[in-house]
Amino acid sequence: MNKGYRGSKSPWILFLLLLAGGLAGSALTGTLAQTLPVLATTGNIGMQPATLDLQFMQLTFGFTMNLGPLTVLGIILGYLVYRRV
What we know:
The chain is α+β, with helices and mostly antiparallel strands and about 80 residues long. About 45% of the residues lie in helices and about 25% in strands.
């Protein structure tokens, strides 16, 4: 199979690289925030949890992210690695 064919990339690989980049950026923020407090600033995006009660089952939906500068940088680097693979 042609390695240069872009359609063969799995979205799961992208997800894992973005997750790894975000986790690495957050870990780096935790380490460097004591030295550089500006790195500790974060913005919250997402949807607060909402519950759907169907009498026999409850479903809870929600998603929030705390994004700091190094977390965003890690996600961007994860995407760039995905483009190179």
